[in-house]
Design goal:
Blueprint: H1 2-36, E1 45-52, E2 55-62, H2 65-78, E3 83-88, E4 99-102, E5 106-110, E6 119-124, E7 128-135, E8 138-142, E9 148-152, E10 155-158, H3 160-167, E11 171-174, E12 178-182, E13 191-196, E14 200-206, E15 210-214, E16 220-224, E17 228-230, H4 231-237, H5 242-250, E18 262-263, E19 266-267, H6 269-278, E20 282-283, H7 288-291, E21 296-299, E22 312-317, E23 338-347, E24 350-355, E25 357-362, H8 372-376, E26 378-383, E27 385-386, E28 389-390, E29 394-395
Parallel strand pairs: 2-3
Antiparallel strand pairs: 1-2, 4-7, 4-10, 5-6, 7-8, 8-9, 11-14, 11-17, 12-13, 12-16, 14-15, 15-16, 18-19, 20-29, 21-26, 22-23, 22-26, 23-24, 24-25, 27-28
Helix pairs in contact: 1-2
Length: 396
């Protein structure tokens, strides 16, 4: 009887030991993620631990080598026998094909590698992406604004050498909100594909009326010149003034709202601001909650006198509850500010934003276009261009 009791007691002790070890490992993993990959939209850190017999195994994937190195160092110091099965991305099985170019006018990026997963953003034709891994025909990619998600098709994998050769070619950029490419230089010929504003293709030749272009997947087509500019002419034509931003924004008026949309086929609020600024050579972050961290602060009180056309206006859940006007705690409950919406200031208390469709509203209560819902949740406004130059934001 005593022998069975001792065995049972030792089993309980070993179980408690392994549970304590697993909890400690999970705590370390959480701390490393918080330090190196707090925003899962722009960094992959999917790591967990499990027991196999008397072995503790950590398994998963991450794009952060710094996070991986520190995680393994700390775990090996505390748990020398731990088994490392973590995979660094990009996946080594991709070889040198870790660059990619989008070959469809718009590519759909989803949260997970399946068609019924949420669409989180889009890519545009000619966009360079980083390929991280593959899974049953899906590719996990990272866009130039660092956003990470899964796409099926739409991307042509390239080696670095192949991408450099592509990059050396002259390009054209589509400047019409919608356009079409044709099989031959004749508008009556069959289409090759639809096109949207911001699409970029390699330029092969041109005549008086058409550009001959090549898609990343090798298709040849012809674009009417009035729908596009050579990349160098477009870049020279960029006018970094607020009035130019608002003029560009008005092109999209009436386009329907689409969650995750960043193209003229459908736009969400931050996708709208992103494509407008993209066409001015500025690469805004993807989401409103990221865009608000760029630029320079113009207003946070609701006094709109300092705003200029082209400034971005942010809306959402106001400052933490449980604090008084001086920010001193008055209760134990705190609610973090949440930026959930963004629009472009037009002047005279008017702003344009994607809400059901791209529309103009006002923050003036006496205006017929007054938007009380957004006026009540206004947070602040930021400026991204000053004196013809970008301010605290990346150029493309």
């Amino acid at each position: 009887m005593n022998r069975y009791f001792v065995i049972f007691f030792l089993w309980i002790l070993s179980l408690q030991y392994f549970m304590a070890q697993e909890n400690d490992i999970k705590h370390i993993i959480r701390e490393i993620q918080y330090k190196y990959a707090p925003d899962i939209r722009v960094e992959v850190f999917q790591i967990d631990t499990h027991q196999k017999g008397d072995m503790s195994i950590i398994k998963g994937v991450t794009t952060s080598k710094d996070a991986y190195d520190e995680l393994i160092r700390i775990l090996k110091e505390k748990h020398p026998d731990i088994v490392d099965s973590v995979q660094l991305l990009p996946d080594a099985q991709l070889g040198d094909k870790t660059e990619g170019l989008v070959y469809n006018s718009v590519g759909t990026i989803r949260h997970s590698p399946r068609y019924n997963s949420e669409m989180i953003t889009q890519t545009l034709l000619g966009m360079k992406v980083k390929i991280l891994e593959e899974n049953n025909g899906w590719r996990r990619i990272q866009t130039p604004d660092k956003y990470i998600g899964w796409i099926n098709g739409s991307v042509k994998p390239l080696s670095k050498a192949e991408f450099l050769r592509y990059n050396e070619q002259r390009k054209v950029i589509v400047t019409s909100v919608y356009a079409t490419s044709y099989e031959v230089p004749n508008k009556s010929s069959n289409p090759v594909s639809d096109l949207v504003i911001g699409n970029i293709l390699a330029l092969k030749s041109e005549n008086e009326r058409f550009y001959e272009v090549e898609y990343p997947d090798g298709r040849i087509a012809f674009i009417i010149k009035s729908d596009a500019l050579t990349y160098e002419d477009w870049f020279k034509s960029i006018d970094l003034l607020g009035e130019s931003i608002t003029k560009s924004a008005l092109q999209f008026k009436g386009i329907p709202y689409l969650w995750g949309g960043t193209s003229s086929k459908g736009l969400d609020c931050s996708g709208f601001t992103k494509i407008v600024y993209f066409m001015h050579g500025i690469n805004l972050p993807r989401d409103a909650s990221q865009q608000v961290n760029k630029g320079s602060l113009v207003d946070s009180t609701g006094e709109f006198g300092n705003l200029k056309p082209g400034d971005l206006m942010f809306f959402g859940t106001k400052r933490q509850k449980g604090t008084n006007e001086k920010g001193n705690a008055v209760s134990n409950e705190y609610y973090d500010e949440r930026v959930v919406h963004v629009g472009i200031y037009l002047g005279n208390n008017h702003f344009i934003h994607a809400s059901d469709y791209v529309r103009i509203n006002s923050l003036n209560p006496s205006d017929v276009l007054y938007d009380k819902f957004n006026a009540d949740r206004y947070l602040r406004s930021k400026r991204y261009i000053e004196k013809g130059k970008p301010v605290n934001v990346d150029a493309i």
